[in-house]
Write a structure and sequence with these properties.
The complex is a heterodimer. Chain A is built from 19 helices and 30 strands. Chain A is α+β, with helices and mostly antiparallel strands. Chain A folds into 3 domains: 149 residues, 2-Layer Sandwich (Aldehyde Oxidoreductase, domain 4); 187 residues, Aldehyde oxidase/xanthine dehydrogenase, a/b hammerhead (Aldehyde Oxidoreductase, domain 3, Alpha-Beta Complex); 316 residues, 2-Layer Sandwich (Aldehyde Oxidoreductase, domain 4). In chain A, the strands form 8 sheets. Chain A has a 7-stranded mixed sheet with strand order 3-7-1-14-11-12-13. A 5-stranded mixed sheet of chain A has the order 9-17-16-15-10. In chain A, strands 20-28-29-30 form a 4-stranded mixed sheet, sandwiched between helices. In chain A, strand 28 and strand 29 form a beta hairpin. Chain B has a 5-stranded mixed sheet with strand order 2-1-5-3-4, with helices on one face. Chain B starts with a strand and ends in a 7-residue tail after the last helix. Chain B contains 5 helices and 5 strands. Chain B has 2 domains: 76 residues, Ubiquitin-like (UB roll) (Roll), CATH 3.10.20.30; 66 residues, [2Fe-2S]-binding domain (DNA polymerase, domain 1). The chains are: A alpha+beta, B alpha+beta. Chains A and B meet through helix 1 and helix 17 of A and helix 2, helix 3, helix 4 and helix 5 of B.
Chain lengths: 756, 160
């Protein structure tokens, strides 16, 4: 912590923030190229059935309608919405552009393309579809038990696996605790609805403008689907009004491109909120059973988990997501014998997909609710119990066989407990009675830093110093709003010691920027950021060489600071060159372009950690819970942009409180989503949010730039667990069926009173 | 349905326009006047991304019909900047890292502006209530509340 930084650790607005506060930045919904057509989708009202016939006569008569699409005139080829490269493991291609057999209520059946949105809407309302209804399997239990109805050709079990490490031999007098936690489907709820714009021009080139997290994956899926050359497809990342994994998969790029190719005009598909909720992706519902054996002194001996993930109607990312559930607990706790069995199951419900934390919030919530139950049985403070079992820095992850790196979860817990006054509050609140009961809860969380150890994790970029000494960093960034582009500027500015404002950073464009698998998987700061640092260091060398040539001094006699290169103290004469002079003279006199290219391959994948502390107040009359105080502690390695990191944690807590208490995409017994708008799908708003305090733990033991590790996903991992544990602490309950709605809270209070 | 001719003011400029009776104010602003800073997030008055100020009150422009603005004055996010200078609220949003993805930002700014126009020195509770109808999924509100508070503490309460 002694190192002095000029820019690292300061607070800077996110890139484009100025254009965001003036309303000047154009998002997908604001883009309107000449000749643009609007597309509107018709979604299935039933969860399972055959699309027998579509009467388009009425729709065709609507003035302005250009074309109507359905499976009757579209390819029946399938794609996978999260495949980055062809042949990728677990990525079964089973999603059609338009359904011939609908598999969930909300699936795409048809689309109208028209010269106005109003005409497209009207025409969609006039489409008359005849369905032959089939029995629908709405829960994983039904889907596993019913062998007669097959949602996908191979049956309803998408995948199953078993992982076991260590020896099974818990001591005879161990305490054995079992729990079941049910997590629910949630909506990502980015405030910007999904949008995509595509154009297929006269030269046979397809251009797609999309708020995606991975342009190269989009391009690959489009190229293989339409049998086009990769070089004839250009995918451009446009501003994203929030993603949280909801825009990570390629949901509408194939269908929008198809409509653009058929009409030869730019086509824009914009979803409304209902469509976003019922037909994009949801965070999957997961049933988690955990059984642990713990010594009487509080050491975990054995941890056995079993998970069932509701994949929805297609594969998408479900297999990878389901398998990831097995990799989180061993990053957090030392477990002598660890076993995880899991399965992903198709159901006739909205497709599950990538969501912030990719399985970690689901499994870690269950783990942390379970750990509190164990601590209670041991009559031990939950904090003490965790200290008996948490990992230490440089422990090995036994499942992935990777070093956890400078894992500082213990420090997060200890420093957080002190700042939150955990011990006093934990003991004080347990004694309180009355209508309003207060409780405190804590939860620990673990996540990763990129794909190393499991998938390609490389990135390529170029950096060039312009003739005036300013810089252009050309990188395939996909800023989703959390400050990715600014972070890269801070890194480069720190290395080259110049104002971040003098650097322009690109976002991803398959035609112009280097390869990168995509900005997700907690890989951006750790790996793309490390690439930016090495690229800047490479340029620094080149600048020094040019300065050495101009000054006719060996570069060992030169140093760089504040936008200048100068001769060191003690050398004969003091000479100074500005970057501008060096850049100009490098070209003019030295015939040197001050530009470098660099490819970075990630060498490691340490753990990122967060420990969070919640105080909850429960109204025992109404069952309503309010989170009244919150502290989030993050093991971030090194804070690059402090204000944005705090914002990441505060936003994650908003999402996590909703996950614990109120958010759920509910599907009724006829397979229809019932809360299909923000009137019925509640997000926590400003009056209901506590002022979230953030404490950052900084070391630099790993390979990220200046020691920085991932933040965006880990921040969202332990929140729900902390909130649920606080409610259970307040009420003496063991609630674990999420979300903890007032009805469930009241029922649990009654049950506790009846038992008491 | 017959189009109606209405006169109104947006960001200090007078307009006369023929509008369909069913047209939403949001569409009038975005599609007819090209003021795309105002965003649509839910179309049912829950998310607040489309908030504008109508005669001093923050309203969801997805719930206001265009004919309702006859003779009224509307301020949108594009009207905050005056003479090339950012409004104090815009400056404070930048300083406090209160902007992330930016999609809720215009609506959030307009709710805050309407509050400060009426109540230049609000309490934290009043600030939180004023933005209760503006959902933010990125930032958890703390930085936004801090930015509004800071604007209200400065100079004349952030209002010109």
């Amino acid at each position: 912590m002694s190192k002095e930084f000029r820019y690292v650790g300061g607070t800077f607005p996110c890139d484009q923030a100025l254009r965001k506060v003036t309303g000047d930045l154009l998002y997908g919904c604001d883009m309107k190229p000449a000749e643009m057509l609007y597309a509107k989708l018709l979604l299935s009202p039933i969860p399972h059935g055959i699309v027998k016939r579509i009467d388009t006569a009425g729709a065709e008569k609507v003035p302005g309608v250009v074309k109507i699409f359905s499976h009757f005139n579209a390819p029946h080829k399938m794609f996978n919405s999260c495949r980055i490269i062809p042949g990728q493991k677990f990525c079964i291609e089973d999603e059609p552009l338009f359904a011939a057999r609908v598999k969930f209520a909300g699936e795409r059946v048809a689309a109208v393309v028209a010269d106005s949105l109003a005409a497209a809407r009207e025409a969609v309302s006039l489409l008359d579809v005849e369905y032959e209804e089939l029995p629908a399997l709405l829960t994983t239990e039904e889907a596993l038990n019913n062998k007669a109805v097959k949602i996908q050709p191979g049956g309803n079990l998408a995948d199953q696996y078993e992982i076991e490490v260590g020896d099974s031999a818990p001591a005879a007098d161990c305490l054995v605790v079992e729990s079941v936690t049910q997590t629910q489907r949630t909506h990502h709820a980015a405030i910007e609805p999904h949008v995509c714009l595509a154009h297929y021009d006269g030269s046979g080139k397809l251009t797609v403008w999309t708020p995606t997290q991975g342009v190269f994956g989009v391009r690959s899926v489009l190229a293989e689907f339409f049998n086009l050359s990769y070089s004839k497809i250009r995918v451009i990342k446009i501003p994203i009004g929030g993603s949280f994994g909801g825009k990570q998969e390629y949901l509408f790029e194939p269908v929008t491109s198809f409509m653009a190719m058929e009409t030869r005009r730019p086509v824009k598909l914009m979803l409304d909120r209902e469509e976003c909720i019922i037909q994009t992706r949801v965070r999957p519902a997961v049933r988690v059973k955990i059984k642990t054996a713990v010594s009487r002194s509080g050491e975990l001996q054995e941890f056995i988990a079993d998970t069932t993930l509701d994949a929805g109607a297609f594969t998408g990312s479900a297999v990878d997501y389901s398998r990831t559930l097995a990799t989180k607990a061993p990053k957090l706790y030392r477990i002598p014998h660890y076993k995880h069995t899991g399965r992903a199951v198709y159901t006739n419900t909205v497709k599950s997909g990538g969501a912030r934390g990719w399985g970690a919030p689901e499994i870690i919530t269950a783990v942390e609710v379970h750990m509190d139950q164990v601590a209670k049985r041991l009559q031990m403070d939950p904090l003490e119990f965790r200290l008996h079992n948490l990992v230490y820095p440089y422990d090995r992850d036994p499942v992935l066989n990777l070093s956890l790196g400078d894992a500082r979860v213990r420090e997060c817990l200890e420093k957080g407990a002190e700042a939150f006054h955990w011990k006093e509050r934990f003991h004080r609140h347990a004694q309180e009675g009355g209508r309003y009961r207060r409780g405190v809860g804590l939860a620990c969380g673990a996540h990763k830093n990129g794909m190393y150890g499991g998938f390609v994790d490389c990135t390529s970029m170029t950096l060039r110093m312009n003739e005036d000494g300013s810089l252009n960093l050309n990188a395939s960034l996909h800023d989703v709003g959390c400050g990715t582009a600014t972070a890269m500027k801070i890194i480069v500015a720190e290395v080259l010691d110049l104002e971040p404002d003098l650097i322009t950073v690109t976002e991803a464009d398959t035609e112009l920027t280097g390869y990168d698998p995509g900005c997700y998987g907690s890989r951006v700061i750790y790996n793309v950021g490390a690439c930016a640092k090495e690229t800047a260091e490479k340029l620094k060398d080149k600048i020094m060489e040019s300065a050495a040539f101009i000054l006719q001094k060996p570069k060992e006699y030169l140093c760089m600071a504040e936008g200048h290169v100068f001769t060191m103290e003690g050398t004969d004469e003091r000479r100074v060159l500005s970057y501008k002079e060096i850049a100009e003279r490098a070209i003019r006199e030295n015939y040197t372009d001050l530009g470098v290219a660099h490819t970075y391959y990630s060498p490691s994948n340490p753990g990122s950690y967060s420990v969070q502390f919640a105080e909850a107040t429960v109204d025992t009359m109404t069952g309503l819970t309010r989170v009244t105080d919150f502290l989030a502690v993050g093991d971030v390695g090194r804070a690059l942009n402090r204000g944005m990191i705090e914002g990441q944690f505060q936003g994650a807590v908003q999402m996590g409180i909703g996950y614990a208490l109120c958010e759920e995409v509910k599907i009724n017994d006829r397979g229809k989503p019932v809360n299909n708008g923000f009137k019925k799908y509640h997000l926590v708003n400003a009056p209901d949010m506590p002022d979230v305090k953030v404490l950052l733990i900084e070391h630099e033991g790993d390979d990220g730039p200046f020691g920085a590790k991932s933040v965006g996903e880990i921040s969202a991992v332990p929140t729900a667990g902390a909130v649920i544990n606080a409610v259970n602490h307040a009420l003496g309950t063991s609630l674990s069926d999420m979300p903890l709605t007032p009805e469930k809270v009241l029922a649990a209070i009654k049950q506790t009173e009846d038992q008491g | 349905m017959r189009a109606m001719l209405i006169e109104f003011k947006v960001n200090g400029k007078n307009y006369g326009r023929e509008v369909r009776p069913t047209m939403r104010l949001l569409d009038l602003l975005r599609d007819e006047l090209g003021l795309t800073g105002t965003k649509e997030g839910c179309a049912e008055g829950e998310c607040g991304a489309c908030t504008v100020i109508m005669d001093g009150e923050a309203v969801n422009s997805c719930l206001v019909l265009a004919p309702q603005i006859r003779g009224r004055e509307i301020i949108t996010v594009e009207g905050l900047e005056q003479g090339g200078e950012l409004d104090l609220l815009q400056q404070k949003f930048l300083e406090h890292s209160a902007v992330e993805c930016g999609f809720c930002t215009p609506g959030m700014l307009m709710s805050a502006k309407a509050l400060l126009m009426k109540n230049p020195h609000p309490s934290e509770e009043e600030i939180r209530l004023a933005i209760a109808g503006n959902l933010c999924r990125c930032a958890g509100y703390s930085k936004i509340v801090a930015a509004i508070k800071d604007a209200s503490h400065s100079a004349d309460g952030g209002c010109r």
